[in-house]
Design goal:
This protein is an alpha/beta fold and 304 residues long. It is built from 14 helices and 9 strands. It is elongated, with a radius of gyration of 25 Å.
Length: 304
């Protein structure tokens, strides 16, 4: 059975795999159509996917294990140099076929856990791609979620006002700068018991909130209530609501999207689709929430 495309044997996201399968269990005296529906072929397909993902997993761990071995050997200058010279072969694979793995997160629900360990993203604290496992290992003790922000490029998201408080607290944020990233991440609700949370959506929690901070927020909400009512009245239907923010440090205001709606980046991607239905635009665009910074001089003067 020779073919260029055979999704029953290998899923679409693994279309870069090439090889020969030798099996003694396939019936020969049948038509091509009957053979494609054979149960043995389905078993072979599952095993091929499993073996491929295991191979990629080993490749992903290869450089990590080599660095750990270099660290154990000693801390002299020569060993450190050797550690820096270790080439991550999986990173080269990721740059070429990373989109395929992300497509797998969307299409292959049965192998989603294995695929989640293979994905790599840019991060706010490192210049290299990082895995979700490495992110979790660096999380603060009080941190309960894996935070991410989506945008057009690394340069754009690095300058985002949404990162202000995270930089202050030293919390790592993943950068989703590939158009497929946000689609893929929506199919991965959590990793290793930690939910994935967009920092551009409402109801953001850092996990380290203390009673003092909660009381302070309650006082701010009460004292800024007249300004909140005035802004809501002035802006009308342009925004859904106005509230005091806990996510911005130096900017006066920020607009966030609803927790279950499209993010601003997803709206941008959907609007750029060539075959999009323009009548769906009103349903696609989510109402924004305006969050104000209670410590910013402009906001304080507006209240007065």
């Amino acid at each position: 059975l020779i073919t260029d495309e055979f999704e029953d044997l290998m899923p679409r996201y693994l279309n870069f795999v090439r090889g020969v399968v030798d099996s003694e269990d396939l019936p020969l005296n049948v038509s091509r159509e009957t053979l494609q529906q054979d149960k043995v072929l389905k078993v072979i397909g599952k095993k091929l996917v499993r073996k491929t993902l295991e191979m990629l997993r080993k490749l992903a761990n290869k450089a990590k294990k080599a660095r750990e071995a270099a660290e154990e050997e000693g801390e002299d200058g020569e060993d450190v140099a050797d550690k820096e010279e270790i080439v991550d072969e999986y990173l080269e694979f990721w740059k070429a076929f990373g989109k395929n793995i992300k497509l797998g997160l969307i299409e292959d629900s049965s192998n989603r856990t294995k695929l989640s360990k293979l994905v790599r993203f840019l991060s706010s604290i490192t210049d290299e791609y990082t895995s979700l496992e490495d992110y979790v290992s660096r999380m603060k003790e009080t941190q309960k979620a894996i935070y991410y922000i989506a945008g057009e490029s690394k340069e754009q998201v690095e300058g985002s006002v949404f990162l202000e408080r995270f930089k202050q607290k030293g919390i790592e944020v993943l950068y989703l700068v590939d158009p497929i990233d946000e689609y893929a991440i929506q199919n991965l609700s959590e990793f290793d018991g930690h939910k994935l949370q967009s920092i551009t959506k409402e109801n953001l929690k850092f996990g380290d909130e203390e009673e003092v901070e909660k009381k302070r927020m309650e006082i701010y909400e009460e004292s800024f209530e007249p300004l909140i009512d005035a802004l809501k009245s002035h802006l009308g239907d342009k925004i859904e609501k106005v509230k005091v923010s806990n996510r911005i440090a130096s900017s006066p205001v920020v607009l966030v999207t609803s927790q279950y709606g499209y993010s601003a980046n997803m709206e941008r991607i959907m609007k750029a689709q060539a075959l999009r239905d323009s009548s769906m635009s009103s349903y696609m665009s989510s109402k924004k929430t305006m969050e104000i910074n209670p410590t910013h001089p402009i906001v304080v003067s507006l209240r007065e």
